[in-house]
Amino acid sequence: MTATSLTRSGRAGTRAARFAPALAAVAVGALALSGCAGEVPSGVAAVVDGRQISVAEVQEATEQFNSLPVSPMTSSDTLTLLIYGEAAEAAYTEAGLPPIPDSQLVAQLQGGGVDEPSDGLVDLFRAVSHLQGVGGLPPVDDMEVAVNPRFGGWDDSVGQIIAQTPAWITEVTTGAQN
Length: 178
Prior knowledge:
Elements: E1 4-6, E2 12-14, H1 15-34, E3 44-48, E4 51-54, H2 55-66, H3 75-94, H4 102-111, H5 119-134, E5 145-147, E6 153-155, E7 160-162
Antiparallel strand pairs: 1-2, 3-4, 3-5, 6-7
Signal peptide: 1-37
Keywords: Signal
C-alpha cells in the first residue's frame, strides 16, 4: 500500500495531510499543557526571588515529614513553608536569636525516625523552627513569588498558597430530574 489513499471526498491525499489537523490539535494541546506553569519552569514548584524550589524537593520533604509522628501536611503546605524559608531565617536572626545548625536539625529529625533527612526536609524543619522562634509569619511584601499552578496560586494578601481551579475545568450542573 502506498502513502497515498483516497480521502472521503474521493480525492487522493497523503495520510499525513489527512491527519494534519488532528496532529496540530494534539500539538497545540501539549504546548498549552506544558505552558501551564507560566513563569515557573518545568519541574519547579515555585520561584522565590529567583531561587527555585523543585517539585521533587517538595514531594520528598512532604513524604518524609508525613512519616514523622505529627499531623500530616499537604505538598502545598510544605511549599508554603519552604517559600517562607529565607524570610523566616532573616526575621529569626534579626530578632537576635542564634542560628540553628543543620546538625541539630538533622539529629532532631533522625530522633523522630527519619534516618536520612533530605535537604528539603531540613529546610522545611528550619523554616518551621524559625517561624516558631519569631512567633509567626514575617512580612513578605517585597518577595517575588511564582508558584506552579499544580500547587495553587500565591496570594500576597494572606501570604500563602491558595488552591485554584484551572480555567479549563468547568463546573457542570445538571437539571432537576423528575
